[in-house]
């Protein structure tokens, strides 16, 4: 694990309380005591104290966020036992419902979408999507982030944002592995725009789906002159589109400053192998793409005529209109070189520069044609030893056509303490027992070589392709389509619709049941399920209503836009500590009454609440944030850093757009 990750583990090490955490604990305790002195009931006082404890544990990571959430859930359960000592008539949460979060619609939906995503990935669909994105966007953050974010944002405008995020999680994992970009640099932009995409249409998020029903309910208590019209499917699209564009621009422009660069839990790319080979053999290699230009003197020659002379090794090629040629059975030394041909070349940077200048070749700054096939997760440098008894002893690499036959492109030969390279006639030297071959190879080819008695593979730590099931693409697509159709076109609960797809994946053999269990991030499940009782306590004890009333009382005489902003801030706060649906149900009636009293449009105030409940970036309590936290190796501090700015941008852009559009 890299140094940065080690430092982060030291910072977040449980069981060690730092002076900073102790000072913060004293401040939060003082704040809880102050609230206890001003709230109208003992129930609200205790809930406020537990709320302060939760925020403290999340913000300062005294323990892991999932452990913190479970601890709070247990404390709420113990209030039933300790009620007489706390001055309560009964517990803050009925213990019969304390663990309802584990069977909640949200948590079951999260489990289901993880399984569905794993099933789609198993068929290779996600690899193809990742390859397409890499082909279009290259391997740079500035190009990949907008493509992923815009795609996920659009998808989440018509389906649940957590479903869209889970669908693209394996895609981002593949892109990370093949581009070398840490998942922590890609998952947060993807997750945030998945949340923002929920503001694009009236079916993009649960609060917006619920809003029209709440408006109709409020109309029953309003006089005819103040009746509100319901919102159309695309009424919020201008606001949502502006928010998505803002989110993408934010990460493109400020991503280098706010996104962490951590080693993710699911990273498949290890340390740079080039460093190892430099240290051990004193060789420096670079992998580059070269394009043979019209008029180049290389046209008409064969690989064998130029590789040794210019100390370069071609490991991949592609002719116009043909597929890439990489691995066993493809490249041979008698391959003809043609105009427009793309070559993947391994060479010392100095030798490469000489080769490019000599033949007027175009050198690409990054891998494009071979971004997928030569990615670190699919190919790299390896060491192979010729053992005693090998049938290759006495033969040269040229004799056995090593590159074409075995998929091993020989770039170095270590013998008698000396490392020979391309240009030292290594392919014509007869192999001896104990020779170490430094080769560039596809990892699939290396897996086969491990079973070949003619070689002993020294490099054992390399990414191995898991068992893929491309023949299951039809049932996987079918059950995904069934689940998606049920979500979009029926009134059945989201969890039931998604579990239909998940179980279909298992029954049809796309996934084994053990693989389905492994696909679930149980840290995410416990984080979400354990927080649901807290939201229930905030609602049922009147804590949320009291906080809302106090805030709105303060801004009651201010300009309408200030009052609307206060409503948005309230919705933002509540959605961090309770479900966005609960926050919407609680605040819409209050917002409607405040708007009427201030002479504002009550429907716009109601919409403000429903949109602002998507402003959930500050801590990982939103389902999407909880989903991406583990795979990317994020800490709460990472969300507070990047999400804090995003929260402010959300509020500003939402307020500006709503006042312009409505």
Describe what you observe in this structure:
The chain is an alpha+beta fold. The chain is 56% helix and 8% strand. The protein is built from 26 helices and ten strands. It has helices at residues 3-11, 19-38, 42-60, 65-86, 105-122, 125-137, 141-155, 161-179, 187-197, 206-219, 237-258, 273-281, 303-310, 349-358, 402-406, 443-449, 473-489, 494-507, 513-519, 522-540, 543-554, 560-577, 580-598, 602-612, 623-632, 636-661; strands at residues 286-291, 312-318, 325-326, 342-347, 362-363, 379-385, 408-415, 418-421, 436-442, 456-457. Strands 3-2-4-1-5 form a five-stranded antiparallel β-sheet, with helices on one face. A hairpin with a 2-residue loop joins strand 7 and strand 8. Helix 17 runs antiparallel to helix 18. The chain is elongated and about 95 Å long. The relative contact order is 0.13. Mean pLDDT is 82; it is low at 1-14 and 264-271.
The number of helices is 26
**Structural class per helix/strand content?**
alpha+beta
Mean pLDDT: 82
Tell me the span between the first and last alpha carbons: 52 Å
Order the strands across the largest sheet as they lie in space: 3-2-4-1-5
Please mark out the parts with pLDDT under 50 across 5 or more consecutive residues, or reply none. 1-14, 264-271
Q: How much helical structure, as a percent, in the residues?
A: 55-70%
Taking all Cα atoms into account, the compactness measure Rg is 30 Å
Overall geometric form: elongated
Count of strand segments: 10
Largest sheet: 5 strands, antiparallel
Question: Strand percentage, roughly?
Answer: 5-15%
């Amino acid at each position: 694990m890299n140094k940065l990750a080690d430092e982060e583990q030291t910072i977040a090490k449980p069981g060690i309380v730092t002076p900073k955490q102790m000072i913060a604990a004293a401040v939060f305790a003082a704040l809880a005591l102050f609230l206890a002195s001003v709230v109208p009931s003992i129930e609200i006082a205790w809930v406020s104290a537990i709320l302060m404890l939760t925020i403290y544990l999340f913000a300062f990571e005294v323990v892991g966020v999932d452990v913190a959430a479970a601890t709070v859930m247990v404390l709420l359960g113990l209030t039933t036992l300790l009620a007489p000592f706390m001055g309560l008539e009964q517990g803050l949460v009925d213990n019969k419902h304390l663990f309802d979060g584990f069977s909640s619609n949200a948590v079951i939906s999260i489990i289901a979408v993880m399984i569905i995503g794993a099933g789609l990935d198993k068929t290779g669909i996600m690899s193809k999507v990742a390859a397409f994105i890499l082909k279009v966007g290259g391997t740079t953050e500035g190009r990949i982030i907008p493509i992923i974010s815009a795609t996920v944002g659009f998808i989440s405008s018509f389906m649940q944002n957590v479903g869209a995020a889970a669908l693209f999680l394996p895609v981002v994992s593949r892109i990370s592995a093949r581009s070398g970009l840490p998942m922590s640099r890609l998952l947060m932009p993807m997750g945030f725009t998945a949340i923002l995409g929920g503001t694009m249409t009236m079916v993009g998020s649960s609060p917006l789906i619920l809003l029209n029903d709440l408006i109709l309910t409020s109309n029953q208590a309003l006089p005819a002159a103040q009746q509100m019209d319901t919102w159309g499917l695309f009424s919020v699209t201008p606001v949502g589109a502006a928010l998505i564009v803002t989110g993408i621009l934010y990460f493109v422009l400020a991503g280098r400053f706010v996104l962490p660069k951590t080693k993710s839990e699911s990273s498949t790319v290890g340390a740079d192998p080039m460093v190892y080979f430099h240290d051990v053999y004193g060789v420096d290699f670079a992998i580059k793409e070269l394009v043979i230009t019209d008029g180049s003197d290389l046209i008409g020659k064969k690989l064998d005529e130029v590789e040794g002379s210019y100390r370069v090794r071609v490991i991949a090629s592609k002719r116009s209109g043909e597929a890439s040629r990489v691995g066993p059975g493809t490249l041979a030394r008698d391959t003809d070189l043609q105009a427009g041909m793309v070559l993947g070349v391994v060479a010392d940077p100095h030798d490469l520069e000489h080769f490019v200048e000599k033949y007027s070749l175009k050198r690409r700054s990054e891998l494009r044609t071979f971004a997928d096939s030569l990615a670190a997760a699919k190919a790299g440098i390896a060491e192979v030893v010729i053992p005693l008894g090998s049938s290759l002893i006495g033969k040269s690499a040229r004799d056995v056509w090593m590159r074409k036959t075995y998929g091993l492109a020989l770039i170095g030969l270590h013998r008698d303490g000396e490392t020979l390279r391309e240009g030292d006639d290594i392919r014509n030297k007869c192999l001896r027992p104990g020779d170490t071959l430094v080769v560039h190879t596809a990892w699939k080819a290396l897996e086969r070589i491990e079973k070949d008695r003619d070689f002993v593979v020294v490099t054992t730590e390399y990414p191995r392709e898991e068992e893929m099931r491309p023949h299951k693409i039809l049932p996987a697509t079918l059950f995904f389509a069934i689940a998606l159709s049920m979500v979009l076109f029926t009134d059945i609960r989201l969890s039931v619709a998604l579990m239909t797809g998940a179980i279909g994946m298992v029954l049809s053999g796309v996934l084994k049941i053990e693989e389905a269990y492994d696909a679930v991030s149980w840290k995410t499940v416990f984080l979400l399920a354990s927080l649901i009782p807290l939201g229930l306590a905030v609602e049922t004890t009147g804590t949320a209503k009291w906080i809302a009333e106090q805030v709105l009382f303060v801004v009651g005489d201010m300009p309408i836009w200030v009052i609307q902003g206060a409503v948005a801030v309230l919705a933002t706060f509540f959605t961090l500590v309770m479900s966005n649906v609960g926050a919407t149900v609680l605040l819409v009636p209050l917002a409607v009454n405040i708007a009427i009293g201030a002479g504002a449009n009550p429907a716009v105030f109601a919409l403000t609440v429903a949109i602002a409940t998507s402003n959930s970036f500050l801590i990982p309590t939103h389902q999407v944030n909880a989903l991406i936290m583990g795979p990317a190796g994020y800490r709460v501090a990472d969300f507070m850093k990047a999400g804090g700015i995003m929260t402010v941008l959300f509020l500003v852009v939402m307020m500006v757009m709503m006042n312009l559009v409505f």
